[in-house]
């Protein structure tokens, strides 16, 4: 699909072969705070999820895509549209690059750009939003590159390591419609 192909990466639908990658990501306790996860996932549950991943966004109300390197086809992250609301033409957006050494190399920027363009041009969404912890400076910087604006702060929203932390709500309106 040309729509989801960039210069260095491409986004693709999840496949049954992604079981190990998704299993490792979902069970990495270091990233649980950004995904609001508190318990591990079994391979059985992830296999069931992948089997149902063929539902389209209108049915599932979400779209989860693998971020792959164009040079090697290696899967290095996940990017999502969630809480898809076709009535109000909006969705949440989230991104995760699995390994720290792959972050801050422009991969997230390229992936986010591809998904924003897809959401606005193909799905005709009016707005996208993201929930970002105030301590997550890299994500705040990434989303602000695309014009996402901080529109609110949720006080003491997430409990991380025994302490409550605030979370920003950021939003991008599609003014090109």
TrEMBL record:
Q: Which residues form the N-acetyltransferase domain?
A: 9-171
The record's listing under PROSITE patterns reads: GNAT
* Coiled-coil regions, chain positions: none
Domain of life where this protein originates: Bacteria
A Pfam family reported for this protein in Swiss-Prot or TrEMBL? Acetyltransf_3
PANTHER family referenced in this protein's UniProt entry, alphabetically: GNAT-FAMILY ACETYLTRANSFERASE, SPERMIDINE N(1)-ACETYLTRANSFERASE
Its name, as the record gives it, is GNAT family N-acetyltransferase
Please report the organism this UniProt entry assigns to the protein: Flavobacterium jejuense
């Amino acid at each position: 699909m040309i729509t989801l192909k960039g210069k260095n990466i491409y986004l693709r639908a999840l496949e049954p072969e992604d079981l190990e990658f998704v299993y490792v990501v979902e069970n990495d306790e270091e990233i649980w705070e950004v995904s609001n996860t508190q318990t591990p996932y079994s391979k059985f549950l992830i296999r069931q999820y992948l089997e149902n991943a063929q539902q389209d966004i209108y049915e599932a109300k979400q779209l989860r895509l693998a971020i792959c390197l164009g040079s090697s086809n290696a899967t290095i992250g996940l990017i999502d549209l969630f809480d898809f609301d076709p009535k109000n033409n909006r969705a949440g957006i989230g991104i995760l690059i699995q390994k720290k050494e792959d972050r801050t190399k422009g991969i997230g920027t390229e992936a986010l750009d591809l998904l924003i363009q897809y959401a606005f041009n193909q799905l005709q969404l009016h707005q996208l939003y993201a929930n970002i912890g105030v301590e997550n400076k890299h994500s705040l910087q990434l989303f602000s590159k695309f014009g996402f604006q901080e529109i609110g702060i949720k006080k003491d929203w997430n409990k991380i390591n025994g302490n409550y932390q605030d979370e920003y709500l950021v939003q991008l309106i599609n003014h090109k419609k």
